[in-house]
Please model this.
Amino acid sequence: MAQWKKKKGKYLFNKKALAKVFRVRFLAALNENRLSIPENPDGHFKIPHAGFNCRDLTSAIANKGMEPMIFPKKSNKMNGDVFWQRMYYSFYDDVVSWLIKYHQRSHTESFHSSFKRSFGIVTKLKLNAKFVQVCARIVLHNHKRLCYFGLVGD
Model:
């Protein structure tokens, strides 16, 4: 594993190269552990992090029957396979509705971050105990939100 080193005020590796290395290692780890993208995913669209902005992932998501929604970068080109082009055309066609769907990811990440800060990590080891602990936390979270909005008394 390469170490992070500074050379004349800059890091030795640039972020684009690191993103490619991460993607390759991520896919290699999936293959090594015999994991794959689910065959029958739930949902109509998939919103990965913008760091996963690549044509291969766009094609893989589209081949699973979902609409890929990867936030475009300034340096992206429209050429490429049909799924890549379709994704960009849908973005340019109706930017506002595309961004509303895209930012569901932000809201989900914000919720999970808040949930973990409030309740900490799951500490149980057995699957059944984990399930009970998570369900109890969800009930407490929902009660807390209802109290906040004044819909339920403390």
User: Anything to note?
Assistant: The helical segments are 15-32, 55-63, 82-93, 95-102, 104-119, 127-148.
